[in-house]
Specification:
By secondary structure, this protein is an alpha/beta fold. The longest helix is centred in the middle third of the chain and has 16 residues, at about 120-135. Helix 6 (about 120-135) packs across helix 7 (about 145-160) and helix 9 packs antiparallel against helix 10 (about 215-230). The protein is globular, with a radius of gyration of 19 Å. The strands form 2 sheets. It has a 6-stranded parallel beta sheet, with helices on both faces. The protein has 10 helices and 9 strands. It is about 35% helix and about 20% strand. The chain binds adenosine monophosphate (AMP). Adenosine monophosphate binds near residues 25, 142 and 172.
């Protein structure tokens, strides 16, 4: 495994690999990230992983300074997982003095996370576009955990004709249903104990949907009720939306994306579940 800090080093190491998979991350790796590396290894000749806590996707009052970091641990996990290249640039390598360009995907960024975190998706789209241009992967792997992010990246790749296949892989969860996230490390033991309420609420919406409920507001209300019954939790949003446009639905047709953002103390957790109709 080669660890590269600069764009020039990464480009030199990348030369000669024809079917390269890229897994972009912000580090502090867990089994969710490693599942993306495993998928990329199965589908590509070699796997590159980027570890970069991208400052431009954090708002001024967000957790950039305290975002968890442990590069030695990340590198040993990636070595064991069989990653070939690890790109660990400094912020000044990605955003040198005079850097002035932004990639803005409109529409799908106006709602959900985009509505609560202004500028977040411009930061994400810009850094992912740069990573695509630097690494030049054949395929790039993202988690369903960040559902809106994967919609934004797919749209950017399509709108800008980026020659990358965007692959979205299933969310990896703890045995009690909590989606793995680097931010779970912020939770106190009492907060961690109630955090699976999010999965319970999403599962309740899925069960209602599978039992025939097609009124999107009834599904949202069922999720809200479960979350608000937990005094430590505050709802940022609860959504049942079209999985491609992310517009809120009135009536669910064949499929939908149920998602939510919840605050547990100072920690903000997001999760989602796809609802699929089994009948045509
Ligand atoms: P992050 O380091 O949080 O920016 O995440 C890097 C990539 O890992 C993103 O594509 C995430 O969607 C994905 N990811 C994060 N958590 C999970 C999870 N629990 N299961 C699957 N993928 C995940």
């Amino acid at each position: 495994m080669q660890v590269l800090n600069t764009i020039a080093e990464l480009r030199a190491a990348r030369a000669g690999i024809s079917n390269l998979g890229l897994v972009p991350t912000m580090g502090y790796l867990h089994e969710g990230h490693l599942s993306l590396v495993a998928r990329a290894k199965a589908e590509c000749d070699a796997v590159a992983v980027s570890i970069f806590v991208n400052p431009t996707q954090f708002g001024p009052n967000e957790d950039l300074a305290r975002y968890p970091r442990d590069l030695p641990r990340d590198l040993s996990l990636l070595d064991a997982a069989g990653a070939d290249l690890v790109f660990t640039p400094e912020a000044s390598e990605i955003y040198p003095p005079g850097f002035d360009t932004k990639v803005e995907v409109s529409g799908v960024t106006d709602v959900l996370e985009g509505a609560v975190r202004p500028g977040h998706f411009a930061g994400v789209a810009t850094v992912v576009a740069k990573l695509f241009n630097i690494v030049q992967p054949t395929r790039a792997y993202f988690g369903q955990k960040d559902a809106q992010q994967s919609v934004v990246i797919r749209k950017m790749a399509r709108d800008l004709n980026l020659p990358v296949e965007v692959v979205v892989a299933a969310t990896v969860r703890e045995p009690d249903g909590l989606a793995l996230s680097s931010r779970n490390s912020y939770l106190t033991p009492p907060q961690r104990a109630v955090a699976p309420t999010i999965f319970r609420a999403l599962s309740a919406a899925r069960d209602l949907f599978n039992a025939g409920e097609r009124d999107a507001e009834a599904l949202r209300e069922a999720m809200r009720r479960i979350i608000t019954a937990e005094p430590q939790m505050q709802v940022d949003y609860v959504s049942v939306a079209d999985p491609t446009t992310l517009h809120e639905l009135t009536t669910v047709g064949r499929d939908a994306l149920a998602s939510m953002a919840v605050r547990l103390g100072a920690t903000r957790l997001i999760d989602n579940m796809r609802l699929f109709s089994r009948t045509p």
